[in-house]
Amino acid sequence: MLSNKFPNLPYRLRLKYTVPQSTENKKIIFNTIQIKVKIPGSLNKVSLGMAVILALVMLFLIASCNHETDPVHNATPFQITVPKFFPTRMNIPADNPMTVEGIELGRYLFYDGRMSGNTEAGKMMSCGTCHLQSRSFECGIDHPRFTGGRPFGITGIVTPHYMLPMINLVWNETGYLWSGSISENNPNPSQRNIEDIVGMAVTAPHEFAGDSNKTKALIQSISGYPALFEKAFGSRTVTMRNISKAIAQFVRTLISSDSKFDKYMRGEQQLSTQELSGYVLFMTENGADCFHCHGGSGNPLFTTNLFYNNGKDSVFDDSRDRFSVTGDPKDHGAYKATTLRNIELTGPYMHDGRFKTLAEVIDFYSQGIIWSPYIHPLMHHANDGGIQLTPGEKADLIAFIKTLRDDTFLTNPAYSAPDKLPDGEQAVR
Amino acid sequence: MKKLLYLLGSGLIGMMLIISSCRKDEVKSVSPQLVFQHNVDGATLQRGVMNYTNLAGNLYQVDELQYFISEITLRKADGQLIKISSDSSIHYIDVDIPSSLVWNPKDQVPSGDYTSISFVFGINEAKNKSGLFVNPPERDMFWPDIMGGGYHCMKMNGKWKATGDVIQPFNFHIGMGMNMAGTEFYQNYFTVTLPLNIQLYETHNKIDITMNIEKWFAAPNLWDWNVIGGQIMMNQEAMHKACQNGANVFQVSPGIRTNN
């Protein structure tokens, strides 16, 4: 009822809506919208007209004062260009539409070490500290600070798992992190999307170990940022939610779609004989059968984004596996299938980083599979210990997997650290 | 004169309203609801538990079941064929996705008496082309291009107790078949036609489509995983036998609609 929403209107404007009804033998649907204006008897026709106009003007003014329905204000909408064969449905929250200004701000924040709430050298940390573009936004096994590719936070506490690449996350609908715990299904509304992961990173002991109020205040105090927040979100006041939204927008732009294999699929480049042999192995059940979990010609993300127990262990005691999310026994020891895009750069591999090289991973799938009651049925060579590839087949398979390296993505300046931060400082990771 | 025109106009409008409401009295169309159910010889499918034995004596369990049903066509008592055409006539069913187990097509079908239903298991040759689906979960049913492309008709993943009491995974996948040389391809979708005596009207519009999983392994081809093996994507002979058995796996029945 409008009269409930706007009780102070001079004349009561009632909106009557009759819901669809049906009778037992007849299907008669009424959809009636009826506007009743209660008019004092002393008003003449002219007064009535003026009153109606006045009411409409007031309604318009009230509606236009309601800024909550326009979270991006006058920011410039940013439309992701969907690459050929890629999904058209994207995971972009309704309350955080992509904008040019939001992405620009997010890029600054992503690479600003003061996101940790500190300005002292050695105590600063940003997303870009661990997520290196050259390593497909993982830290990589050769990171100068994180020996062996094992990241840790400001206080030295290691992360519960090794890293996942930050590629094409805008098409991830099944939950983020190895367990997929950050998803729409999470009962905790503050743990459902990339925005929430940003907020968690600021305070998590194994990451920034910070205080979101301190971070917020520090960012607020840096010249240049308030103006960028105003452009992106309509207010110079820095909030943790808007920090998270901006970084999430930037992360959603990190799209890989220009590997050698992409070019092959688009008919722009041919694969070598060895790469094609590896491709056949990748795509066939009697070969290496990678495609059921990791995609391929019909799924260019090179992951289903689903969760599998791939036969690494026989005992499962990780409190952050898929079982911890679903409680379904078949999910013991199950983790997200990672995308294979740029995989040659993202070692060490698996949730616990147990394999240092791609060759070790292929050896594992070839001869190192461990049977357990929880192993996924798609691991159909489990009782043989794996797919039993010959050395030549392993080389072919690796050659194909390397065609998924996307140098356009790895060097895209739009994804790199800005030359200078909003206050003119150098980006400190 | 003005009064006369007013009366005539009012009368005309009144008659139009009466005619209009009379039309609404006749329910001419129904929104059908298709409900997909899965059992093993009548018992509701319980996944992840090895408590089923097929006719060949294999103890087995089913963990995942995903498939396409398409081209659903209802035959009216007067012989008229009514096809469900929304969503490209294709529906994806995944036992892990409850919403996929109920299909409310946008189509309206005429109310009245129906005598049979037919549908394609999988996707027909004309439509089963790579690139048809770019979004999950349908996308993840893709069948490799080098094996003919398109999409799986079905993926049923599970395990069976093989010779020597060894638990073996099986992947009962059906899609495009090919010869060993990769030079010839074979379509493995098939059409199922079943009697369905139902009178469809507004509050009686639900059709249950039930898959008896055990029938995949029964007749006319006795399915023994110890002989056939657990993987059949690259075994056209096995997929063909599976499709022959598949003709017997479905039952349809009328149901009372319980929700929208």
Distinctive features:
heterodimer, A: 429 residues, mainly alpha, Cytochrome Bc1 Complex, Chain D, domain 2, two-stranded antiparallel ribbon, two-stranded antiparallel sheet, 15 helices, 3% strand, B: 260 residues, alpha+beta, five-stranded mixed β-sheet, 17 strands
The major sheet of chain A is characterized as: 2 strands, antiparallel
Instruction: Summarize model confidence as the mean pLDDT of chain A.
Output: 87
Shape of chain B: globular
Outline the low-pLDDT stretches of chain A. Answer: 1-43, 60-70
Helix content of chain B: 10-25%
Secondary structure: number of strands of chain B: 17
Specify the CATH architecture of the largest domain in chain A: Orthogonal Bundle
Tally of DSSP helical segments of chain B: 3
What is the helix tally of chain A?
15
Mean pLDDT of chain B: 91
Q: For the CA atoms, what is the radius of gyration of chain A?
A: 27 Å
CATH topology of the largest domain in chain A: Cytochrome Bc1 Complex, Chain D, domain 2
Descriptive overview:
The complex is a heterodimer of chains A (429) and B (260). Chain A has 429 residues and is mainly α. Chain A has three domains: 2-65, no CATH class; 100-256, Cytochrome Bc1 Complex, Chain D, domain 2 (Orthogonal Bundle), CATH 1.10.760; 260-405, Cytochrome c-like domain (Cytochrome Bc1 Complex, Chain D, domain 2), CATH 1.10.760. Chain A is 31% helix and 3% strand. Chain A contains 15 helices and four strands. Chain A is globular. The model of chain A is unreliable at 1-43 and 60-70 (pLDDT under 50). Chain B has one domain. Chain B has 260 residues and is of the alpha+beta class. Helix content of chain B is 15%, strand content 38%. Chain B starts with a helix and ends in a 5-residue tail after the last strand. The longest helix of chain B is centred in the N-terminal third of the chain and has 24 residues, at 2-25. In chain B, strands 4, 5, 6, 7, 10, 11, 12 and 15 form an eight-stranded antiparallel sheet that branches. In chain B, strands 2, 3, 8, 16 and 17 form a five-stranded mixed sheet that branches. In chain B, strands 1-9 form a two-stranded antiparallel sheet. In chain B, strand 4 and strand 5 form a beta hairpin. Classes of the chains: A mainly alpha (429), B alpha+beta (260). The A-B interface holds A 22, 26-29, 85-89, 173-174, 279-280, 283-286, 291-292, 295-299, 304-306, 328-330, 371, 373, 375-380, 382-383 and B 21, 24-25, 27, 47-48, 63-64, 130-131, 134-136, 139-140, 142-147, 149, 151, 157-159, 166-171, 173, 202, 230-231, 233-234.
